[in-house]
Write a structure and sequence with these properties.
The complex is a heterodimer of chains A (260) and B (418). Chain A is mainly alpha-helical. Chain A has helices spanning 6-24, 34-53, 61-88, 90-93, 101-128, 135-165, 169-183, 198-205, 208-219, 228-252. Chain B is of the alpha/beta class and 418 residues long. Mean pLDDT of chain B is 80; it is low at 249-263. Chain B has 2 domains: 3-245, P-loop containing nucleotide triphosphate hydrolases (Rossmann fold, 3-Layer(aba) Sandwich); 256-386, abc- transporter (atp binding component) like domain (Coagulation Factor XIII, Chain A, domain 1). Chain B has a 6-stranded mixed β-sheet, sandwiched between helices. Classes of the chains: A mainly alpha (260), B alpha/beta (418).
């Protein structure tokens, strides 16, 4: 109904991303350094504990753990920022009709920016450790992030709508993420045979997050094998998921203003 | 002329779940018990067309469905099935000024944020940037965070951004009255320009005078139905009829409900009346306002006094307050019900709505005269004053204009007197 040029959509997206980035660490002394401090503090604590308890056979355990922590932080942000994206912009949605998907994409781009800041630091550490980084690895890395972003947007198309109607979905997702932290091999490795129950081990092994986390590690030559074909399959599935979740979203979003 | 808006059989129903399901537990339990769903027909079968270049006013009481209609045209709410809403061209809703303003950001940053939300591109905003800043008269403050701005500055900035959006249809929700008089004059020019450029405007208000002034035609909405679509003058008369009818229907329910009935001395009711002592709530300016206050006395107390205050519609400002203690009125209270009458014979209110508060208090002895209250009540419905002229402000004061020689003569005379 309202004609808004795509040029405006891009500008609006940039403005929204810029604003939430500025706002997130406004009035804090360390400012956006918190993007780094939080995962690294989590990493340090886990490293001190688990490097003594588990004594993992994984080479470069520190980097293994660090990439795991950064990965799970990213997934967490994708889910939380995505699901809150409509609710947090309720005051604008109630007054102006702009393409609603922009609010969602803007929130998730914020998560990607945080990830990129963290990854730059990791790249330094990787190079310092003497691990080589190849160009294909970088392409692999970008592909991994793109896939996660696509799945994240798809999820947010559904969760952002549902969250407006069912407010405690936020708690449900937080709880799910808490469980996921143990259901993905962040601080342990499946190679170590720490899990005696073979069914649980299988569950963790084929947990999609495990697969993606290990592909991220593989891209940086930290752990595991790269599997390009697997990524392409996940990408295609992600695009399909995105398509269907967008269908749901575009149908539901017309009524969303009535539910705030 | 082409149609900008074409609305046919527009209806809107809101479903209110009496037990609002905002948590999963409530949603889950409501699978089993259907829950009570209240249907509200906010709009029913509204049809009208707006042609390019027309200024259309929409008037109606609070809760009549005006805002819902605007939100449907602005594509924020979705109309019921079977409704047809066609909007040709770009719509910019000014349902609220400064949507998305972030108070931590500077004026400059907010121009781009708010501007893109309203559908403008960054490069377009760059070319209009100086114009926006100058129109808002904020050149010196544009790089300060807007949290340091006064509310007037904020509104000026928001308005200056909004008018730059190059739309075919502007939807305005009572925002013509922003800023000081100088800024209002500037905004009036802007709207005149819009008209010249052939833009269309939907203007919502419950102030019929502004609608008469700027609109070509007006729509009257009451209880979700379109009562009429006609010349603003006729719509104005019909609107006043609706208000009067409503007021006559509910003439004696003036005492605010929910006030706990106190034992002891209390105010039973407050009634507005005309010169014939019949209930009335709408007055022409100049027509005396009479108030009947029913008071229940349990305990005779000659030190009990009555105060009446008149507040503006926003309940911000005391227009006036009088009481029997200061006026040295001698009460003669008797046990049981008492009637007290108050008359404002010289009614100089300007057009507007006012609330009346009555209180019953005991005057404490002592120099600082602290009041000890028995009871205090506010009328639930407002007192309404009409006047055909266009005078601003809440009150009209007797006055006289003079210029040049006239003034000089007076000054000379008064000097001679001394």
């Amino acid at each position: 109904m309202t004609k808004i040029t795509s040029k405006n959509s891009i500008d609006l997206l940039i403005e929204l991303v810029k604003t939430s980035f500025k706002m997130r660490y406004q009035n804090s002394v360390l400012g956006f350094l918190w993007v780094l401090i939080k995962p690294y503090a989590m990493f340090l604590v886990m490293y001190l504990i688990f490097s003594n308890i588990i004594r993992s056979s994984v080479e470069n355990y520190a980097l293994y753990l660090l990439t795991g922590v950064i990965f799970i932080t990213f997934i967490n942000e994708l889910l939380v920022l995505g699901q809150m994206s409509l609710l947090e912009r309720a005051h604008i949605i109630l007054k102006v009709s702009f393409p609603r998907y922009i609010a969602i994409v803007a929130a998730l781009i914020g998560a990607v920016i945080n990830l990129c800041i963290n990854l730059i630091l990791i790249l330094f550490i990787v190079l310092m450790k003497g691990i080589e980084i190849d160009l294909i690895g970088i392409v692999h890395l970008i592909l991994v992030i793109t896939i996660l972003f696509i799945w994240g947007v798809g999820m947010a198309f559904i969760t952002s709508i549902l969250t407006v109607r069912i407010r405690d979905l936020k708690n449900i997702i937080e709880l799910g993420m808490f469980m996921m932290q143990y259901g993905t091999p962040i601080f342990y490795s499946l190679d170590d045979n720490l899990i005696p129950n073979s069914k649980i081990k299988l569950l963790i092994q084929y947990n999609p997050l495990t697969i993606m986390m290990n592909q991220l590690r593989a891209a940086l030559n930290v752990y595991g094998q790269r599997d390009f074909l697997l990524l392409i399959i996940v990408l295609v599935l992600g695009l399909l998921f995105l398509f269907f979740s967008y269908m749901y979203f575009s149908k539901q979003v017309k009524k969303i203003a009535e539910f705030f | 002329m082409k149609n900008i808006i074409k609305v046919e059989n527009l209806s809107k129903t809101f479903y209110l779940h009496t037990d609002k399901k905002n948590t999963a537990r409530q949603l889950f339990t409501s699978f089993f018990s259907q829950g009570k769903v209240k249907k509200f027909n906010v709009l029913s079968n509204v049809s009208f067309e707006v042609k390019q270049g027309e200024f259309i006013g929409i008037v109606g009481r609070n809760g009549s469905g005006k805002s819902t209609l605007l939100k449907i045209i602005a594509d924020i709410y979705e109309a019921d099935k079977g409704s047809k809403v066609e909007v040709n061209g770009k719509v910019v809703p000014f349902l609220e000024l400064g949507v998305g303003f972030n108070e931590e950001l500077t004026g400059r940053e907010n121009i781009f944020l708010n501007g893109t939300i309203l559908g403008m591109t960054k490069s377009y905003l760059n070319t209009k940037f100086d114009e926006i800043v100058d129109f808002a008269e904020l050149r010196d403050f544009i790089d300060e965070p807007v949290k340091t701005y006064s509310s007037g500055m904020l509104v000026r900035l928001a308005f200056s951004i909004a008018i730059q959006s190059d739309a075919d249809l502007y939807i305005l929700d009572e925002i013509l009255s922003v800023g000081d008089s100088g800024f209002q004059r500037k905004s009036a020019h802007v709207f005149a320009d819009l008209k010249k450029q052939g833009k269309s405007v939907l203007y919502v208000s419950h102030d019929i005078n502004t609608v008469k002034e700027i609109c070509d035609k007006a729509i009257l909405i009451d209880n979700g139905e379109m009562v009429a679509f006609d010349k603003p003058e006729r719509i104005g008369r019909m609107y006043e009829d609706i208000i009067l009818k409503r007021i006559n229907k509910s003439e004696n329910d003036v005492v605010k409900e929910g006030n706990v009935e106190k034992a002891g001395n209390s105010i039973k009711s407050i009634t507005f009346m005309n010169t014939e002592y019949k209930p009335q709530k709408v007055y022409e300016r100049g027509q005396p306002i009479h108030l009947k206050i029913d008071i229940n006395v349990e305990e005779e107390d000659n030190e009990m006094y009555v105060g009446v205050g008149i507040l503006d519609f926003e309940k911000d400002v005391w227009i006036t307050a009088v009481n029997t203690a200061v006026d040295e009125f001698e009460h003669s209270w008797k046990k049981g019900s008492n009637e007290l009458f108050l008359s404002f014979n010289n009614n100089t209110f300007n057009k507007g709505r006012f609330y009346v508060v009555v209180s019953l208090f005991k005057k404490e002895p002592g120099p600082d005269s602290n009041y000890d209250y028995f009871d205090s009540r506010e009328t639930e419905q407002y007192l309404e004053v009409f006047s055909s002229d266009r005078r601003n402000g809440k009150l009209f004061l007797e006055h006289e204009w003079k210029q040049g020689e006239q003034q000089k003569n007076i000054t000379m005379n008064s000097l001679a007197d001394e």
